[in-house]
Give the backbone structure.
Amino acid sequence: MAPYILNRVLSIFFVLIAVSFIIFFATHILPGSAASLILGEHATKESLRTLEHEMGLDKPFYVQYLNWVKGIVSGHWGDSLVMKQPVVSIIKLRVKNSAFLAVFSLATLVLIGIPLGTLAALRQKGKLGLAIMTGSYIGISIPEFVTGILLVLLFAGPWTHLLPTGGYREFSQGISAWLKHLILPSATLTLILLAHVVRQTRSGVIEVLKSNYVRTARLKGANESRVILRHTLRNGLLPTITVLAMDLGYLMGSIVIVEEVFAYPGMGRLIIYAITNRDIPLLEMAVLIIAAIYTVSNFIADMLYMYLDPRIRYR
Amino acid sequence: MSERKFPPSVTKSHYLFIQNPALVIGSSILAFIILVSLVGPVISRHATTEQHILKRLQGPSLTYLFGTDQYGRDLLSRTLLGGRTSLILGLGAVALGLVLGIPIGLITGYFKGRTDEIVMRFMDILLSFPSLLMALLIITALGASLSHAILAIGIANCPGIARIVRSATLSVRNEEFVFAAEARGESHFYIMASEIFPNILPPTIIEGTIRIGFAMLIGASLSFLGLGVQPPHADWGLMIRDSREYLFLSPWPLICPGIALAVTIIGFNLFGDGLRDMVGGSE
C-alpha cells in the first residue's frame, strides 16, 4: 500500500508540473505581450522594449517558464495587471468564497442524491423510480446557465422576491444574508450533478440488494429499515464516494459558469475576469490553483475509498 | 413469416431498436431538431436580423410565434438559426476530436511500448483538467470565435477519444487476421488502416455520438461567457447571455433558446446511450 501512495503523490507533482507548463504555454503565445498591455496602445517601441527587458519577456521561453515556476514555489506570485493587487491576496479571498459554494453544493448533493438514489433502487420498477431517474436525466442535460437563470426568474424575480438575484455577503455581515446568497448558486450546481450521484447510488444499492448477506439478513428476520441502513447502504455507497470525487472535478468547471450567472465573487468568475481583461499573472495562478485542488481532491478520494473498502488492493 | 426474410442478426438489432426507448426517443428528437434547423431558417417569415424596435420584448403572438428579443427580432427565426450554429459546433468539435484522437489511439495501441506509455501519460494529464477550463485556456491563447471554439472543444475531446480507440485497438491487436497481415508482410500503415480501423469503428462511433451533446454544452457555455460565438451571430448560448439583462421584462428570450438547447442535448445523450446499449446488448 505504501508504494502505491508514494506513487500517487509523485504523480500529483508530475501532473502539476505538466499542467503548469500547459498553462504557461497557452498564456504566452498570446498576441500582444504583457508589456504592451501595461503601457497601453500608444507606447513607443523603445519603452516597450525596456519594460519587456525588465519583466524578462525578451528571454528564451524556457528561461521565462523556469523563472515563473521559481516565483510560484518561493511564494512570489506577482501582482495582478488590472487590479494592481498582489495575486496571492486576491486568490486567497476567492478560494475561500468558492470553497463555501463547493462545500455547500456537495453537502446538498449528498443529502438529496443518496436518499433519492436509494429510493430509486427500492422502487426500481415502480413509477417513483422512473420519475427520479427521468428527473435527474433532465437535470444533467440542462446547461448550468439555463437552470441558474430559470431559478433566478422563479425565486428572485419580481413575482416572488424570495432570494437575491446574485452577489455575495460576507459571513460576518449576518448568517441569513450569507446563506441566502449561497442557495441559488448551490442549487444550480446540485441539479447538474444530481444525476451522477443518483445513478451510482441506485446501481450500487441494487447490486448489494442481490447479495447473499442481504438475503441472510432478511432471512434472519431483520426489519427492512435495518437491512437497508446497516447492510445495504454501507457497502452500496462505496462507489458513490468515487463519483462524488469526480463531481468535485465537474464542479471546478461548473463554478466558472454558475459564478458568472450569479455574479458570485469566487475563483470561476476570477478566471473569466482575468481572460476578458488579459490579466495573465492572475489567470495563470487561478487556473493552476484550480488544477491543484482538482488533482489533490482526486487523490484524497482514492485514499478515502481505499480506507473504507479494505478489500481493494492496489499495486 | 415476414421475420424470416431477415438474417438473424438484423432481426435482433431491429427488435432491440424497438425495445430501446432511449434510442427511439433520442433519434426522433434528433431527426426533428436537424430537420427544423435545416429547413426552418429558409421558410421562416422574418429575417433573423430584421429589427422592429417598437415591438421589442414581446410575448408569443400570431406574428411572432415565440415573441421577440431586445431589438424586436423574431425569436423563432433566431432560435432556428441558432440550431445550425449549435449543430455545427457539436458535430465539428467531435469530428476534430476524432480526427486527432483516432490516429493517436491507433498508433499507441498498435505499437505499445515506450511511445504508448509517454503519449498516454500526457493524455491522462490533459484528462485531469476540466474540459471547460481546457477550452477556456485555448480560447485565451487564440481569441474568441466560432472556429476557435470548435478547435478548443475538439482538442479538449481528443484525449478521451484517444483512450477509447487505444483500448479497442489493444483488443483487436491480438486477433488472428492482424497476425496474418503481418505474416503477409503488409506495412504498419496498411494493417492499422485496413485491418484494425474497420474493427474499432463501432465503439469509436458510439464514443463520438455520446460526446456530441457534451461538446454542444461546452460550446454554448463558451458563448454564454462571451468567449465563443460572437454577436450578431444567432447562437443559443449567446441568446441566453443577452436575455439576462431583460429577464424580468420578458422571459421568452431565455426560454426559447434554453428549451431548444436542453432538448437537443437530451436528444444526443439519449441517442448515444441508446446506441451503446444496443451494441453492448447485441454482442
Remarks:
- The two ends of chain A are 7 Å apart (CA to CA).
- Chain A has a mean pLDDT of 82.
